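Board notes (copied after class):
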Amino acid sequence: MLKNERLSIHKGSSLKSVLTELETAAMLSFEDSVPIPAAVNHSKEFFTHELKSIFLKEWICVGREDEISNEGDFLTHEVAGVSILIVRQTNGSISSFINACAHRFARLVQEKSGNTKRFICPYHAWTYNIGGELIRAPYMEMKNCFDKKTNGLHLVNTEIWEGFVYINLAKEKQKSVSSRLKFLKDEVVGRYDMASYKTVMRKTMTWDANWKNLIENFTESYHVPIAHKKTFALHKKPLEVYYCGEDNDHFCYHRAAQEADTGSGAAHPKNNRLKGEWRRMMVDCCVFPCQLITLMPDFLWYITVLPLDIGRFEATWGVAIPLEVLADIPSSEYENWLSELSDYMDTANDEDKILVQALNQGSASTILPKGTLHPIEKNLWQFTKYLHKMCRI
């Protein structure tokens, strides 16, 4: 058994049995709803199935557009075992490629981020420009009819929405991100203009839990007053004021206005985008399957959660801040401000890590109560319905 692998009979649950359990849970009304069935988070067969049914088909957020703002800036990201190379082009657009040389598939770029004019394979020095075109292949003139034009990097579908970069690995053309999230932008988050927020940090963490455990945790704020006393609970949003959003095939969200209309969590006086209670409104949303967003008038926290194994995931997260807020920070104090913000976010993540890993540990048991959901945990039920829709055979 692997170091982080947890003993559980659920691991051997067949795909058919897990899909039956998932369908039963998804078909319940919200009033009768129950948590995600335990086997959905622990079955090896289901884990393999969801990689194919979800992560190799859906749009996955890989970062923020302003993280690669200059020509030749790049990020790498791994989705379901596929390494992706995301690059800012000469014309200002962003392109994504499979991070593997077109010769014998050696990984082309090992770094998480950087800037370059060309990518050179460490194996045989095949060289590509930032547009993915092969520009040098040493000694390949020895092969008859070798054509550099047909041996470029494998292009991946890429789209920008609200400042976020998404890739899609499906062979078939998929409905665009902008059309999928039209309601979310038009009715909820568009008023904030997230794309104008400036990214100030990006980190990656690995936890011993199923990727869906973090989705479960993030999509409900019932735990915030209890678990986040050092961080998010300080915004003082009573549970009674939370509103859970409409059902949708591509996202779920909930929102709540804090009491204070000034200070942390509220709009800057120079913010002329937000009106009324939206000047102190927090929105938590999940763009299915695995992008999590906490959006406030003065703050944006975003996470992409990707599975590494049944009981292990990697979460890449970042924070972005509106320009009018950043303008108030003296340059001499910026590094100290950023350090304090980083400590704050690390504390919030530490508060959540205990819960998320406990959720994975507890649900490994084959003897469990029936379970139920609180009225402001509607997003969990919506996520269960999404899983069923994507994974059914």
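Comment from the instructor: The chain has a mean pLDDT of 96. The radius of gyration is 22 Å.
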